[in-house]
């Protein structure tokens, strides 16, 4: 079977396609024929060697996939050959076959196709936990979302709307604005300016009558964080997810005291490893939002297997609205 492999850390174009033996499951493992794999920003970091969790070289990158169970190892219950599943793993998705476990996998509901399922994994789980677990979002509150046309950002827009929130989407241009609006954003603010520390607060206050945002979802860091925390309402919550905009920001804690603001971080994989029952409940909630039409994975482009490096490069450059998904080309 074909598999992308990282032999040395570097740019996406340094990935190689290797021919590897077909996988065999060990005890507790599931081998899946991968139909589609989602591209995530952490994949770029793993390939470059800049992520917090790195496997030994050489390795197959990729954290999100959907496919059909090929074989199960001893001790696996609830999954059988032929099952349609989606899964989030630490690495190994960019291949024609992948290994997962029951704790990392979910049966796909009828009507959900493989590319959609591959696009509905890590970013939706991350956005859901950011909003509900860390941000403690309540229906009727206002959410400010940075990078609102990206993978996590757009997922957060859809989930927040599905949970009854008012959504303020931070974007950089008209194309991103339209994508956010199409997913239900109530208000759009411009993040393309140079003085975001003041501009974000001005724009958020303008659409909230000076109230601010109850919850802030920040996958960007850098200048967005400085502006967003100033736009946070009294007793607001800021959830830090990543630093896609570049610099890791710092915070003056006196500002937290003055407005009773809470700032917290989120690393989704800790929930997968420590509380798999919460991840299962979150995925079922996401499936329910999908059935209601609130969650609609947006696939900007479906790439063929040989074009995965191009997809990764576009994600690295911040040129993907929604998700880039790689098709393995076998009945997807």
UniProtKB/TrEMBL annotation:
InterPro entries: ADH-like_C, ADH-like_N, ER, GroES-like_sf, NAD(P)-bd_dom_sf, Quin_OxRdtase/zeta-crystal_CS, Zn-ADH-like_protein. Residues 10-326 form the Enoyl reductase (ER) domain. It is an enzyme of class 1 (oxidoreductase). This is Putative zinc-containing alcohol dehydrogenase. Keywords: Oxidoreductase. One of its GO terms (molecular function) is quinone reductase (NADPH) activity. Gene3D superfamilies: Medium-chain alcohol dehydrogenases, catalytic domain, NAD(P)-binding Rossmann-like Domain. Pfam families: ADH_N, ADH_zinc_N. Its EC number is 1.6.5.5. PANTHER family: QUINONE OXIDOREDUCTASE-LIKE PROTEIN 2, SHORT-CHAIN DEHYDROGENASE/REDUCTASE. SMART domains: PKS_ER. The gene is qorA_6.
């Amino acid at each position: 079977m074909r598999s992308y492999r990282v032999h040395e850390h570097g740019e996406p174009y340094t990935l190689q396609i290797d021919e590897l033996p077909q996988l065999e499951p060990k005890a507790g493992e599931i081998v899946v024929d991968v139909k589609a794999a989602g591209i995530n920003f952490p994949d770029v970091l793993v390939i470059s060697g800049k992520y917090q969790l790195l496997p030994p070289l050489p390795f197959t990158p990729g954290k999100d996939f959907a496919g059909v169970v090929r074989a199960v190892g001893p001790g696996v219950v609830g999954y059988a050959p032929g099952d349609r599943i989606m899964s989030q793993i630490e690495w190994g998705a960019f291949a024609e076959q992948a290994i997962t476990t029951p704790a990392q996998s979910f049966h796909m509901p009828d009507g959900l196709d493989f590319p959609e399922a591959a696009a509905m994994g890590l970013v939706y789980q991350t956005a859901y936990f950011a909003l509900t677990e860390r941000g403690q979002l309540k229906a009727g509150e206002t959410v400010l979302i940075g990078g609102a046309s990206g993978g996590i950002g757009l997922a957060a827009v859809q989930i927040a709307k599905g949970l009854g929130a008012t959504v303020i989407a931070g974007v950089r241009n008209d194309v991103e604005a339209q994508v956010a609006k199409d997913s239900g954003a109530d208000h759009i603010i411009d993040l393309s300016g140079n003085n975001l520390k003041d501009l974000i607060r001005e724009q958020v206050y303008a659409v909230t009558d000076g109230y601010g945002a109850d919850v802030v979802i920040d996958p960007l860091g850098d200048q967005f964080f400085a502006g967003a925390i100033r736009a946070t309402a009294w007793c607001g919550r800021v959830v830090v997810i990543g630093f896609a905009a570049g610099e890791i920001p710092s915070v003056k804690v006196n500002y937290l005291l003055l407005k009773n603001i809470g700032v917290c971080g989120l690393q989704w994989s800790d929930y997968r490893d420590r509380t798999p029952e919460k991840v299962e409940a979150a995925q079922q909630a996401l499936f329910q939002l999908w059935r209601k039409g609130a969650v609609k994975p947006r696939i900007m482009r479906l790439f063929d297997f040989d074009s995965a490096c191009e997809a990764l490069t576009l994600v690295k450059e911040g040129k993907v609205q929604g998700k880039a998904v790689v098709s393995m080309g076998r009945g997807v």
